[in-house]
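HUMAN:
Just now I want nothing more than another pair of eyes on a protein record. I would be glad if you read both lines and explained how they fit together. I have put the entry right below:
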Amino acid sequence: MRISPAHALLLLAPFAHANEALDVLEGKIDANSVVLPPPPYKEGAEGEAGEEEVGELIYLEPEWAPSPLDSIWSRSVLYDSTANPWVQQVAITGYFDFQGSFGQAETDASGLTPARNTDLDGTRTRRARLGARIRAFNNTEIEAIGEFAGSDEYSGIERLKAYTQLSDTTGITYGKFRPNFGTESRTEQQLSPYFNRTATTDMFAPASSLGVSIHHAGKDFDYDVGWFSGDYSADLPSVEGDGFLNLSISRTTVEKNGDSLARVRWHADYIHNFDPGNTNPAGYNLAGQLSANGAQFVQNPAYRHLFSTGFAIDSDRYAVTADFQLAKGNTTAWGLSLGGSYWVMPGTLKLVGRYQYAGTDDARAIVTTFGNSGGLRYDDSPFFTGDEYHSFYLGANLHLYKDGLILRNGLEYSILNDDVGNSFNTEAFTWRTGASISF
């Protein structure tokens, strides 16, 4: 069937180039000889193989609204010039976290030992960090951070590391820094919606140590291989013993969530400790001290294998995290955490919640703290031991300036059973409050 020039123009107009349509009208070329490009993609349309064609989705972090405080926070950047081939940026960094708690831990009577209460009221500076960040040589970022809160044993150089981009897909981190272990190791504390880390992270995760880690970004997965010294020092650890090996694999995908996008990050981390018994891979050093719930002596665990896997989902209004952790050595313990947050007033008021569980078959293998102590690295904190732990937290965070100035308030209920031990079962209600500033 012959196609008239007019009809051909109407048929080809959406697809053919303008000069081809004009040539058809002028009779220079046959309309049937024009090769048409594929029709534009329409969502839900199926290809010849019956598969839906989906373009690449790119997740963009929600933007903060402009604020009068922007000019103040921007002063933390002391120098910024992409034209300089040696140093591109110099900035100071800081994080200060002040916390208070009000409540008490109640321990059941056991045998001849009467019931006891432990006062959890108090205030303290939980974090006081000051440091610098330098970008140099167009491929290296250097971080130096000092910690000034906590006991003398843990105040010092929190981080002194550099990351060098070797190629588009490969980079190397070296110096004193945290190994990859769990969701929280990938999140700076000032960006966490919670007052403190989970109980299992506090027990298992190694402290910052001297090491080197190679990162490779594959087509679908990211890989990290690192080695760290088993020595711990508040300043710079030495290269001591055989250390521990840190292996990580992760994947990030972007999915549709109604009219918006969500970023899903999955990870699996493994640490093999070649020197079990060193304090660093155990996460704490409390040997010889007495627990608050039963006045029982505590021994440091000698973990040889540490494993963690979980995911984090980020969207414009909500975030969800889940993490499972396992530690095996002379004792075995495990646990999981589920957390979530939701912007009730985007950029201003965030509702947060978290559930934690930790378990073991060994007596007193779960060691944790309540209240604003919230960390086994504070030697003056009352700590409690048991074999089964549950914690429920619900709170609200008021963001006065982005993530840089936050007021936090919330209620936490914790249960620590001691069924395998001497039945020093403990429960605690704690009201948490605090403020943090970071730049």
